[in-house]
Write a structure and sequence with these properties.
Order of helices and strands: HHEHHEEEEEEHEEEHEE
Strand order of the largest sheet: 3-4-11-12
Structural class: alpha+beta
Bound molecules: iron/sulfur cluster
Helix content: 25-40%
Radius of gyration: 18 Å
Number of helices: 6
Strand content: 15-25%
Shape: globular
Length: about 220
């Protein structure tokens, strides 16, 4: 299925069907912080789109690197810092422990809650819009439950009662995320240009950038 066909399929999914599925699986956030932390040796890796990075920067005045880092897959590193290679997309920045830099340990809460990216707003669910699909392409842990078009990933809050109102709000956001992911994939594909430059190159839907978010020009 092309990205365009997937986007069309995502647009066609009925929010009420997604809400039904979420209700049947059940979910309530326990504020355990599990989804905001790295797992064992693995650093936290959650996709954040360029416009979401700017939204997080908008009020906090953080620079790009304070918000996001190049998605680490396929990059060479020295002392934990990526030094060379090409990658696609951005991940939320992490702290020295490998946790999301925006997780506030003391208050056990997200410090940018109102500006958090779509992937955070919809955890632990993803929308499967292909017959054999595995839901989101972003790493979210194993699929542990399914209902209708919804996949549920590992989370201790699953199985808890959720109100219809909350299920519908979550369903609408999940649909928005599924469409947005395909739009981003289309942008990455259409704007891909090989770049013969030293260091790290990040390809996103807006073109090619340095790890600090600076566009690489011809
Ligand atoms: S942005 Fe907020 S909700 Fe998302 S992983 Fe970081 S702390 Fe958690």
């Amino acid at each position: 299925m092309t990205f365009e066909a997937e986007r069309a399929a995502a647009r066609d999914v009925d929010v009420a069907d997604i809400a039904d599925a979420i209700e049947s699986i059940g979910f309530e956030c326990t504020r355990c912080g599990h989804c905001c932390r790295g797992l064992g040796e693995a650093e936290h890796t959650a996709t954040v789109f360029p416009d979401e990075i700017r939204e997080i920067q908008r009020e906090g005045a953080d620079n790009w690197r304070d918000v996001a880092r190049p998605m680490p897959f396929g990059l060479s590193e020295t002392d934990g810092e990526p030094t060379t290679g090409e990658t696609f997309e951005w991940a939320l920045q992490t702290d020295a422990c490998g946790d999301c830099t925006f997780y506030d340990d003391e208050n056990e809460a997200c410090s940018i809650y109102d500006r958090r990216p779509l992937i955070c707003r919809t955890y632990p669910f993803s929308l499967s819009i292909e017959d054999e699909g595995d839901g989101t392409t972003s790493p979210m842990g194993s699929v542990v439950d399914r209902a209708g078009p919804v996949h549920a990933h590992e989370c201790e809050g699953l199985g808890r009662d959720i109100s219809r109102e909350d299920a519908e709000e979550l369903a609408a956001t999940l649909k928005r995320r599924a469409i947005r992911e395909r739009e981003e994939a289309i942008g990455v594909r259409d704007n891909y240009e090989p770049r013969d430059v030293d260091g790290v190159v990040v390809h996103d839907s807006e073109g090619q950038k340095r790890p600090d978010g600076t566009p690489i020009s011809e």
